Amino acid sequence: MALNLDCVGKEFGPYEFEYSDKDIILYALSVGATEQELRYVFEGSDGFCALPTFAVIPATQALFDAVSALQAPLEKLLHGEQAIVWFRPVPTSGRLSTRWSVKNVFDKGKGALAVVSAVTESTDGTPMFENIFSLYIRGEGGFGGDPGPKVEPIEPPKDREPDFEVEQMTLPWQALLYRLNGDRNPLHASPEFAALSGFEKPILHGLCTMGFAVRHFVNTALGGDVSKLKEISGRFTAVTYPGDKIKTQVWKVPDKYILKVTTDRGHTVISNFIAKTA
Q1: From 23, 79, 188, 216, the catalytic residue
Q2: Does residue 206 have an active-site annotation?
């Protein structure tokens, strides 16, 4: 079935998302925070704060609404790329409002790449953050559309070791924990659905892997100061399975940081990964 391209360029929403410190803590635990990081998991700790990538959670409904509007089959869907821009730190509780739109659908031949923007504000209209989801839909290309801009690879420096490196095991049930944040795609829970999608078993959410990596980055390069992070973008190039070990490497280069995320299966799972700070 062809994608519904009539939704491209139209704005949808707003819808509201209300959350408390309980949601902040659940999210932090689901992206690997431990008892050594009480500022993310204990509301009574000094400096209690939200991890920056909690920003994807209020936009989860936008992601699934976009999939529905595009009439994209879930079993053919892969999260291709993700970017987040923060206008201010994520509060530890509150009510937020999100509008979203499908900015474009590019024809990649064997598949289609849908670019979805979700802009989240406080209820008084103050901009908070923007998520840009790039969704690859297998088998839906070849419709004669724009192939999209060519993206040049962003490689870490080859002449030196990373400035920071963190390794951490994920839990065998990591995806089951992460899906409690709102992403209930059966790809992350059902062995039968995972097999239908071509995977050996349920996979970890790409945004969970990214949450691990950004947490590692904030804790090392930014000394735990979540307010310094202003922008990230990265490409999901391979899957992480629950129980894999994630390694995050960070290089400081002019004007930004370059991150590389690999697993103990020998795969680079997030590439073209950059972070910009204040």
Answers
A1: 188
A2: yes
Q: Is 264 a catalytic residue?
A: no
Sheet containing strand 229-236, edge to edge, reads 11-19, 94-107, 111-122, 127-138, 77-86, 229-236, 268-277, 256-263, 245-253, 164-169
Paired tokens of 262: 């690999």
82, 131 contact by CB (below 8 A)? yes
Q: What is the pLDDT along the chain (278 residues), one digit of tens a residue?
A: 589 999 999 999 999 999 999 999 999 999 999 999 999 999 999 999 999 999 999 999 999 999 999 999 988 999 999 999 999 999 999 999 999 999 999 999 999 999 999 999 999 999 999 999 999 999 999 999 999 999 899 999 999 999 999 999 999 999 999 999 999 999 999 999 999 999 999 999 999 999 999 999 999 999 999 999 999 999 999 999 999 999 999 999 999 999 999 999 999 999 999 999 99
Reported pTM:
0.96
24 annotated active-site: no
Catalytic residue among 80, 111, 141, 206: 206
